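#lab-general

N.A. 3:47 PM
ok so I finally got the sequence cleaned up, no stray characters, all 82 residues accounted for. can someone with queue access submit it? mine expired

B.Y. 3:52 PM
send it over

N.A. 3:53 PM
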Amino acid sequence: MAMSQKVLSFDPDDPEPLVGVAQVLAERTPRHDLDKDQKIGRGRKNCAARAGHGGHRRSSSGYPPEHWPAFKGFLKSELTRF
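B.Y. 4:20 PM
back already:
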């Protein structure tokens, strides 16, 4: 989570860390957490939705251009979980 947030401080629309933040929020929020709906909603709104809209551009993570279509497909499949 901390690393994704650091990357997002340099590039707030990078799809890879946006999906990572949404995943962490969804997976680490306990069912009994009083703020569960707010945290999951924040992950959906701020992270997953922005990654979906920015998914047309390449991640700054350094993937070679020939690997980007496959990685983009992976990111889109991860977004469907939220």
